Amino acid sequence: MQPKRTRPDWLKIRFAVNDNFRELHRIVKDNALHTVCEEARCPNQSECWGKGTATLMILGDVCTRSCGFCAVKTGRPPQYDRQEPYRVALAVQKMNLRHVVITSVNRDELPDQGSEVWAATIEQVRQLNPATSVEVLIPDFKGVWEPLKHVIDARPDILAHNVETVPRLYRRVRPQAKYERSLRVLEQSKLHGMTTKTGIMAGLGETYDEVLALMQDLAAIGVDIFTIGQYLQPTKRHLPVERFVHPDEFAEYKRAGEEMGLKHVESGPLVRSSYHAQEQVEKMSGAPCGGPIANVRLGVG
Ligand code: SF4
Q: What does DSSP assign to residue 106?
């Protein structure tokens, strides 16, 4: 039996529900949508939903992969819902979001791996919400170019794909993924003019030097935004926490990563890919999302 680790003070979070939280919950349910905040049992739900932001998850709530850290259900997903892109766009409108983060489960069983729904979602969100910037957190599409091109052609403002951990731990943490393949997704996206973003979880058994080496790999392919936060075990069936990383070490990752050339490193115990996503975009662009220079494109192409 694994030893139970007591969370340090910096990871103790008070869960509170305010009117924003209740309203967001209603919009998500009324539109039959899913959020990764709920499915992945994110520790920041109270804070993010309390401020009226959430990360929407498309293509259903059943994933074809079985990553050791992830609480999303694994199995053979049912047929996807062609109306989902419109309902996502409607929900974004009702939530009055200036910046939206959309992610999905893996749909490895589909010939296009769900990329048609991805593109339709980006397009419909834009149509209904022209002032909202769109960040997509996509799967690796098994490294196939056509589905990735489909998403790139829809021109999201930020294209994110998480490498999740250091290469040595892939077999245990992401058994159906490949580190090199994920790097190629980010590299291809960057070469096609996207602003790119990726992230990992700390505390799964990686070493300090391995994180530095990973950040070097990311800087070498021009990744713009990097996030790193503490892994928390969602249930007893998931991978254990190997170590709680001290906030000072997170501060050191930020300093080192930005020195290596990553434009923005968001690093801290509670950081998740979508945590403070809007603030990251605003910092990089120098303008508020949906403000006077609404929907600024950050890509280089
Ligand atoms: S950090 Fe992301 S996944 Fe977690 S609650 Fe906030 S928006 Fe949702």
A: -
Extract the tokens encoding 260.
């290596």
Would you say residue 232 lies in a domain? yes
CATH at 255: 3.20.20.70
Q: Which residues form the domain of 30?
A: 17-285
Instruction: Find all residues with CB under 8 Å of 63, minimum gap 6, and list them.
Output: 70, 72, 73, 74, 75, 77, 105, 106
Flag whether 291 is in a domain: no
Atom of ligand 1 lying closest to residue 45 CA: 5
Give the per-residue pLDDT at 252.
98
Q: Compute CA 296 distance to the chain's CA centroid, rounded to the nearest angstrom.
A: 20
Ligand 1 touching residue 275 (CB < 6 A): yes
Expressed in angstroms and rounded, the spacing between residue 42 Cα and the centre of ligand 1 is 6
Distances (CA, A) of 251 to 12, 38, 162, 267, 268: 19, 28, 20, 7, 7
List pLDDT tens digits, range 179-215: 999 999 999 999 999 999 999 999 999 999 999 999 9
